[in-house]
Amino acid sequence: MLIYFRILKESFNFAINALRNNKLRTFLSLLGVTIGIFSIIAVLAAVDSLEKEIKGSLSSLDSSTIMLTRVSFGPTEIPRWKREQFPDVSYDEYQHIKRTLPNTEAVSYSLNVASENITYQGKQTQGVQIGAVTSEYYDIESLQLEDGRFFNEAESYSGSPVIVLGHEIAENLFEGLNPIGKKVRLYGRKFSVIGVLEKEGASIFGGSKDGAAFIPVNLVRRIYGDNNKSTFPQIIIKPENDVDNAAYIANIEQNLRLYRGLKPDDINNFFVNQLKGLTDFIDNITGQLNVMGLIISGFSLLVGGFGIANIMFVSVKERTNLIGIQKSLGAKNKFILLQFLFEAIILAIIGGLIGLILVWIITLIASSFTGDFEFVLSSANIFTGMTISAIIGLISGIIPAISASRLDPVEAIRTGF
After folding, report:
1. Is 390 buried (19+), middle (13-18) or exposed (0-12) by CB count in 10 A?
2. Is the model's pLDDT at 251 over the cut of 60?
3. For residue 195, which of 219, 214, 168, 173 has the smallest C-alpha distance?
4. What is the mean pLDDT of residues 239-247?
5. CA–CA gap between residue 405 and residue 400 (Å, rounded)
6. Last residue in a domain, options 235, 269, 303
């Protein structure tokens, strides 16, 4: 074992000497590895950061959460013209599912309405996302309240003029005052503030609830009506834990088909969208992006590999005399082979380290410019970068190392002289 440490130490010294004595040549040879590792890890870090941000924005919802709508959240074989004829899910269907669907923890009904302005004593906050939902939405989304409460079932059913504000909205309107019990104006009428959500933090996709306000859906239904296509109604269902997923979805489909009076040969005129399917779709997309990035970056690594191989061939030629002396003194072929192989690997790792440092610097700069969106250089990506560097060094150095180990000692010493 000690001999391997000795070989590694000597190889490291030879690699450092190569860097010192032939700075330009070594720099150009390592540039390909550095660029290749930089490209690969930059792509992996960017995709990982994007995936983390998307899933973070969905983290408040359980992956088993189901959304019934007239549109599909993923690819579908149903032609567009037929999908456009599908009816919206209705409030009556929400009530029916709530009454009849077994193994269900909560069912909520929501409308996607346009952003509005909220005012309080002359102060106005513009572009507030309005969450028109039923009371069960609080449990499905696992909302966290900083103060007050969410509206209850009676307020939800009657469409009471009550409102729960996002953290940012409450701060902008009340500037440190306690908003609970205060009256704000929305849709030309007064709403009583009954709750304020905890600060969530901004999202690159604009999905933060800090800039949102929640009101009973039945109040919004009176304003917009039930036949307004722009409101995009949806029924949100949260099943109980440990429910058989396939059987539960089949039960939902059968339930709604019977309620709508669909015939056995009719296709579903609605979509059962499960959040797990959306996250799987995201995983698929990010996986494809990773593969594309690896393929593109692989060309840079190929150039880097040729650069390492070139510098190793030159190193073998420059040290032919030394190799001859080592072999004449009893050094075995394996010793010579490992010496040059370790040197190639060390050179490649040095190039990879430079690439990783560049990625790390860029992630810090990018994160400072994007605010709450954080670029992540994970330990897994660092390990991947170093592993790829070592593999490139191994592949690039194997042929020069073999050629060095097979040199005849007499010829090697004579060539040196």
Report:
1. middle
2. yes
3. 214
4. 86
5. 9
6. 269
